[in-house]
């Protein structure tokens, strides 16, 4: 039997549910939590990718891994996941990581596409958190990580709903943390900046030119997920921006309107030029 270092001081790690788990930051969280001895519930749309990841983690770490193939843009499928969570009696960790971005002015993006983002980022995170909290509050232990973005602090034409939904996740997490802080439950809003994942290779971003962002500002998903879990253990920050450069960037964005305008113009030229 493997001996795992206690995470958050918990004996007998329970289950961790990760959305958007088939690649990127979600897959990194899966690997790190498997190392810590958690059984996993991996959720994403791509069943084959999920299954191959689940098979590898079960072999490498001797844990149990369930997969759920679901599209969180669909409210019926969100409800199915909610019902599933209610059947899990030892869900210790929920990571709301699924997400995507669109490019284009709000009025020009088809409403259906915007509503898909609304449901993936907001409806799913809200409903899954509500379901998970029922058991966590009874057991007086649990952790929820809502993966937001540096976009939560930006105003960028062409990314209106993305920035707004990610901002919602920050406020939601901060307020929720106040409600559960004395109940053994930890909440985090993770706000990564540019991370080398498939995020910039699919959908509206598949032609995104990564070279417009300085190399020093990119991070690897394993590093982002690892820092997130370390900060969760220390329990110091609810809103966490991994990497000092990103914290500096947030400060500059919030305090310097000239720099903010330059960033907005660059995004406008990239997305709409």
Explain this structure to me?
With 273 residues, the protein is of the alpha/beta class. It has a single domain (15-272), classed as NAD(P)-binding Rossmann-like Domain (Rossmann fold, 3-Layer(aba) Sandwich). Helices cover 48% and strands 13% of the residues. It has 8 helices and 7 strands; from the N terminus they run βαβαβαβαβαβαβαα. The protein has helices at residues 24-35, 47-61, 75-87, 111-139, 160-180, 221-234, 244-255, 257-272, and strands at 15-19, 39-44, 65-69, 91-96, 142-147, 185-190, 239-240. Strands 3-2-1-4-5-6-7 form a 7-stranded parallel beta sheet, with helices on both faces. Strand 2, helix 2 and strand 3 form a beta-alpha-beta unit. Helix 1 (24-35) runs parallel beside helix 2, helix 1 (24-35) packs across helix 6 (221-234) and helix 3 (75-87) packs parallel to helix 4 (111-139). The longest helix has 29 residues, at 111-139. It is globular. The relative contact order is 0.13. The model is unreliable at 197-210 (pLDDT under 50).
């Amino acid at each position: 039997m493997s001996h795992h270092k206690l995470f958050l001081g918990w004996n007998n790690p329970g289950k961790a549910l990760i959305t958007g788990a088939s690649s990127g930051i979600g897959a990194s969280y899966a690997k790190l939590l498997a190392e810590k001895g958690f059984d996993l519930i991996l959720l994403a749309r791509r069943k084959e990718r999920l299954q191959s990841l689940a098979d590898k983690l079960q072999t490498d770490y001797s844990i149990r891994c369930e997969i759920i193939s679901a599209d969180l843009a669909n409210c019926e499928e969100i409800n199915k996941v909610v019902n599933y969570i209610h059947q899990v009696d030892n869900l210790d960790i929920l990571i709301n990581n699924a997400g995507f971005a669109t490019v284009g002015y709000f009025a020009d993006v088809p409403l259906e596409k915007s509503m898909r983002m609304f449901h993936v980022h907001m409806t799913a995170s809200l409903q899954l958190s509500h379901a998970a909290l029922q058991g966590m509050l009874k057991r007086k232990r649990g952790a929820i990580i809502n993966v937001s973005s540096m976009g939560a602090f930006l105003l960028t034409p062409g990314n209106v709903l993305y920035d707004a939904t990610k901002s919602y996740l920050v406020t939601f997490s901060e307020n929720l943390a106040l409600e559960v802080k004395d109940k053994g439950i930890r909440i985090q809003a993770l706000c990564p900046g540019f991370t080398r994942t498939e995020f910039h290779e699919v959908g509206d971003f598949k032609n995104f030119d990564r070279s417009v962002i300085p190399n020093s500002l990119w991070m690897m998903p394993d590093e982002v997920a690892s820092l997130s879990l370390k900060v969760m253990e220390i329990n110091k920050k609810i809103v966490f921006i991994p990497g000092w450069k990103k914290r500096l960037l947030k400060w500059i964005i919030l305090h310097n309107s000239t720099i903010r305008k330059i960033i907005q113009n660059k995004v406008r030229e990239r997305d709409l030029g």
